[in-house]
Write a structure and sequence with these properties.
197 residues; alpha/beta; Rossmann fold; five-stranded parallel sheet; two-stranded antiparallel sheet; P-loop_NTPase
Length: 197
């Protein structure tokens, strides 16, 4: 594979719904493409590493939940996120970027952040079930998912699909396809893109 690699860094975005499998997929792809089979320099970048500290004044506070809105761009240091995506490009062959709002961040002028994009999606009930089994810091208050998180996701999905028409985001629902099927599809796309540059 490495002998036919074009030389330009490929940036793959894994975005979408909370608890949709993005981080798990990112780790699997990183392990595979950094293995002896490919000999690629692979880096991954996780949007969850860019949340502002809890006491940051830029947070939007939701009075009805007495809780910050952790499901909007204002909760994140998007400037540092974009800077790191651009910086990491020069340090690897394949850059994997995952996070719930990666496709909602405005790209810098005259540039694109991603070469391939996959938007993870889930039905409401499955998303709620997975979210309730996870521990968050700070923890979700009672009714936060039903009263805020889901609608925030629906809005973000609409915006992401509109904002990334040029990328042709591929919708992925892991309740309809197995993880292995989804992974095989993404691997095939990455291999083809690396080969043709």
């Amino acid at each position: 594979m490495s002998s036919s690699f074009s030389g330009a860094t490929l940036v793959v975005g894994l975005g979408g719904v909370t608890n949709g499998g993005k981080t798990t997929m990112c780790k699997a792809l990183e392990d595979l493409f950094s293995s002896n089979k490919y000999h690629l320099r692979v880096k991954s970048l996780h949007m969850d590493d860019y949340f502002h500290p809890t006491d940051d004044p830029r947070h939007i506070h939701l009075e009805e939940f007495n809780h910050h809105d952790w499901d909007c761009l204002e909760a994140l240091d998007t400037d540092r996120f974009i800077a790191d995506v651009q910086s990491f490009r020069s340090q690897c062959d394949l850059l994997l970027v995952e996070g719930f709002l990666i496709f909602n961040v405005s790209s810098p002028k005259h540039s694109k952040l991603f070469d391939l994009g996959y938007y993870f999606d889930l039905p409401y009930e499955e998303c709620r079930r997975r979210r309730s089994s996870r521990n968050y810091d700070p923890p979700d208050p009672e009714g936060y998912f039903e009263g805020h998180v889901w609608q925030a996701y629906v809005n973000a999905k609409t915006d992401a699909l509109e904002q990334n028409k040029h990328l042709g985001l591929e919708l992925i629902d892991t309740t309809k396809e197995s993880f292995d099927q989804v992974q095989a599809k993404i691997v095939s796309d990455i291999e083809r893109s690396l080969k043709h540059g």
